[in-house]
Write a structure and sequence with these properties.
The protein is an alpha/beta fold. The chain has a single domain, classed as Aldolase class I (TIM Barrel), CATH 3.20.20.70. It contains six helices and twelve strands. It has helices spanning 33-44, 73-88, 147-167, 181-186, 201-218, 241-253, and strands at 4-6, 9-11, 16-17, 49-56, 68-69, 92-98, 129-130, 143-144, 171-176, 225-232, 258-264, 270-278. The strands form three sheets. Strands 3, 4, 5, 6, 9, 10, 11 and 12 form an eight-stranded mixed beta sheet that branches. The protein is globular, with a radius of gyration of 18 Å. The two termini are 21 Å apart.
Length: 280
């Protein structure tokens, strides 16, 4: 229950609320009363840090049409309702920034086959990108990300980090696990590229590290940046623990303050416990 100091941000205790997708955003990606009650109650309960669920850095980076977003000023203004209340309770407001990649454009968990049920462009969905044209489960076949797509995504993360500051967040976390786009680039199971973004670990790390640098530079230097990573894919030929450890060291070198290690199971679910590790 002792405080933790990260840069100029002090978290009152080590009881932190992890980001948990609610699929309850307004059609414009803004938080609703549901989010205020959901997160506000945990802040009232005494959690030291409240991590708002994965919020898309652009419309095409969402998982579902009901995902939270943080890609424009109107959304940032709506998020201030959450950050103000959380801060008033003595908790630290934080937010996870997300780009779904090939796991995007699917139905809500309680609709049809849920996260295994794609929403096609003609039905209100959107095109997705990935390191290679390898679909995730039964979802739509993604397009291989071009260099321009990669550059835009890096810029989208940086822009979202700036908006997080305007919204009142004291911490941002980059989602680089769970099979979303940054993890997809890291994993040889989904990254079959032959250019400078594929092949060796150094190449596969290139895009996630670009995002980490961009977010670190965009977010105020006195505030911490976290990254959630996958420790292992639990599949032969996937990310190994040694590779994850090397990636974590590279994250520390670009100024990331904390990384969350997620032990990924073959069925795509996370295994507990998750553990936070100081990167610096």
């Amino acid at each position: 229950m002792s405080p933790l100091q990260l840069r100029d941000v002090t978290v009152a205790n080590r009881v932190w609320m992890s980001p948990m997708a609610q699929y309850s955003a307004a059609p414009d990606g803004k938080p609703t009363d549901w989010h205020l009650v959901h997160y506000g109650a945990r802040a009232v309960g005494g959690a030291g840090l409240i991590m708002i669920e994965a919020s898309a850095v652009g419309p095409s980076h969402r998982c579902t049409a009901a995902d939270l977003g943080l890609w424009n000023e109107e959304q940032a203004a709506a998020h201030r309702r959450l950050t103000s209340f959380i801060s008033e309770q003595g908790a630290v407001p934080a937010i996870q920034l997300q780009a779904a990649g090939r796991k995007g454009s699917h139905k809500l968990p309680w609709d049809g086959l849920g996260q295994n049920d794609p929403v096609h462009v003609g039905d209100g969905g959107w095109d997705t990108i990935a390191p290679s044209t390898v679909r995730f489960g039964d979802l739509s076949l993604p397009q291989e990300a071009s260099h321009a797509d990669i550059d835009r995504t890096v810029a989208d993360f940086a822009h979202s980090a700036k908006l997080a500051q305007h919204a009142g967040y004291q911490v941002v976390e980059i989602q680089a696990s769970h099979g979303y786009i940054l993890h997809a680039f890291l994993s040889p199971l989904s990254n079959h590229r032959t250019d400078e973004y594929g092949g060796t670990l150094q190449n596969r790390m290139r895009f996630p590290l670009r995002v980490a640098r961009a977010v670190r530079q965009a977010f105020p230097p006195e505030k911490p940046v976290f990254v959630r990573i996958t420790a292992t894919d639990w599949v032969e030929g996937g990310i190994s623990i040694d590779e994850a450890a090397f990636f974590a060291k590279e994250l520390a070198a670009v100024g990331i303050d904390l990384h969350l290690v997620l032990h990924h199971r073959p069925d795509g679910q996370s295994s507990w416990p998750n553990q936070y590790h100081r990167a610096l």
